[in-house]
Amino acid sequence: MNKRGLAPTDDSARRPRVAISLGDPCGIGPEVVAVALADPRVRSALTPILFGDREAFSAACSLRGIDSPLRAEQLVAVTDLPRDLRTFGRVHEDGRAQGAASLAYVDAAIDCVLSGNADAICTAPLSKHRVSLSHAGFAGHTEHLAARFHADVAMMMAGPRLRVTLATNHVALSDVSTKLTPEKIAFVIRLTNRELSIRFGLSKPRIAVCGLNPHAGDGGIFGDEEGRIVIPAVIRAREEGIDASGPHPADGLFPRAARGDFDAVIALYHDQGLIPAKLLDFRETVNVTLGLPYPRTSPDHGTADDLAGKGVADAEPMISALLLAAKLVRG
Predict the structure, then answer these.
(1) In what order do the strands lie in the sheet with 206-210?
(2) For the residues 138-156, what does the mean pLDDT come to?
(3) Measured distance CA(296)–CA(321) in Å, rounded
(4) Quick one: pLDDT at residue 83?
(5) What is the spatial distance between Cα 5 and Cα 199, in angstroms, rounded to a whole number?
(6) Which CATH number, 3.10.450.50, 3.20.20.70, 3.30.9.10, 3.40.718.10, labels domain 152-291?
(7) Rounded Cα gap, residues 29 and 244, in angstroms
(8) What is the pTM of this model?
């Protein structure tokens, strides 16, 4: 029994097994994971397998007054960093060691599902900058997962009122138009349609595609990308039997989608999609990687170094990510 009165249950064999990476040991990852795994909603929904730093997780439990919610076999120590390298909120030197450790946790979680010992992955936040110091070119979880699984993927922000899939992820705004092609957008529409059908249980998803330019180009006044790139992709998707429409002016589309007119929106660049998703439901919006053979989710926030170690980090986004991972396994 822990300090919150939560006792282990004996029906874990019936629950989805979720491999969890602890995130950057100096950020809020250990804290939000500790709080989430002690939450009754999470404990009843899944069986966790945590990969990370044992001492960092223990310190996070102590910080929030929680006896460890995990059995010994559910916490796999990938690294146990020296104390000065895992002090919450304090990055030692350039953070290279913490970045390397946090990516090692992710790789261990991936290995766990590949070996058949877990059904889904949920990743706590890491620092792209700190990881890139030891892994040149690292752009984020999504790209790393795609490479590890040799899969073509897309990033979806899934919230209670809005689902948004990105046609481009971590790309400089000046490069977005050069990265977009009819084939790329058609692939993202197709992938979104498939995952909504298979994992989210929607029989005929309604998918709306944003325009790139203001007013979706306004007939070519503000750019030709809509006619040259977006419309051919939508036509191709419709020919495949997908209920796709667009390009829609983004400013008018997102209110309609939030009202329920569409099941998902395809945004053409990062901030076009993430700003409305986070504005509407930040705590419950979950980052989902589409296209992997296993569900992967993550809370949609960073390491929040300024909050680490203060005992005030909000664990609700991590709880939402864990619950959705379990739901997608069942779906």
Answers:
(1) 75-77, 47-52, 17-21, 120-123, 296-299, 286-290, 154-158, 163-166, 264-267, 206-210, 243-248
(2) 96
(3) 9
(4) 76
(5) 34
(6) 3.40.718.10
(7) 37
(8) 0.91
